[in-house]
Amino acid sequence: xxxxxxxxxxxxxxxxxxxxxxxxxxxxxxxxxxxxxxxxxxxxxxxxxxxxxxxxxxxxxxx
Amino acid sequence: xxxxxxxxxxxxxxxxxxxxxxxxxxxxxxxxxxxxxxxxxxxxxxxxxxxxxxxxxxxxxxxxxxxxxxxxxxxxxxxxxxxxxxxxxxxxxxxxxxxxxxxxxxxxxxxxxxxxxxxxxxxxxxxxxxxxxxxxxxxxxxxxxxxxxxxxxxxxxxxxxxxxxxxxxxxxxxxxxxxxxxxxxxxxxxxxxxxxxxxxxxxxxxxxxxxxxxxxxxxxxxxxxx
Lengths: 63, 226
Known about the structure:
The complex is a heterodimer of chains A (63) and B (226). With 63 residues, chain A is mainly alpha-helical. Helix content of chain A is 56%, strand content 0%. In chain B, α1 (2-26) packs antiparallel against α3 (51-72), α4 packs across α9 (191-211) and α8 runs antiparallel to α9.
C-alpha cells in the first residue's frame, strides 16, 4: 500500500495537470458534430440515437 | 549538425519501417500489403498468411534504427520522434474515422457485432457509441497534429486504444469471428484480423502514452529553442 500511494498521487497530479477545458470542449464539439453528421448523411446511412443493429449470424467458416 | 543528420536519416528509415509494419498489420490482403503482392504470391503462395509476422518484424527493425538514432543525438531524436509520433498516430486516427463518419449505419452494425454492450444489458448504447466515437477519433487525431494540446489529445487517444484493446480481446475471447472495423466497414468474417488489430493497438499504445507525458506545444514549437 505504501508503494502504491505515491504512484496514485502522481497519477492524480497528472490528471489534474491536464487542461480539462480542452478535453470537455472537444467532447462537446464531437457531440454536436455527431448530431449534425447524423442529419447530414443519407437516410439509409443514419441511425436512431438510442438503439442497436442486428447481430449477424457467425459465418460457418471463420478464416 | 552532422550527428543530427545521421540521427535524422536513421529515424526516417525507422518511420518507413513502422509505417510499413502498421500497413502490413492493418490492411491484410490489400494492395498496401507487401505479403499480398502478386509477384511474392507467385514465388511463395502462402506469403499472405505471414502479414502479422512481417508487420511485427518491421516494427522491431524500426526499433533497431530508433535506438542508435537516439544515442547519436538525444535532443534531436526526441524532438523528431515526438513529431513523427504525432503525425503518425494523429493521422491514423483521422484516416480511421472518415469511413465511419460517412456511414454511421454500417459502423453501428459493426459495433453491434461485438455484442459488448449487449453483454452489459446496454445494447441501446450501440448506435450512440457508433455516432460519437468516430467524431472523437477525428477531432482528437486532428488536435494531436495541429494544436499544442498534445497531452490532452494523447490522453484521450490512449483511452480509445484501451477501449479498442478491451473490445478486440472480448471478440477473441468469445470467438465472435469478426473484423476489427478499424479502417474499413466490411462484414464479419475474419478472426485473424482481430488478432492483428489487437497486436497493432498493443504496439501503438506505448508511443501514445509517451506523448501523453510530453509538454503541450505545437509541432513547430517542438523545434523552438527553450
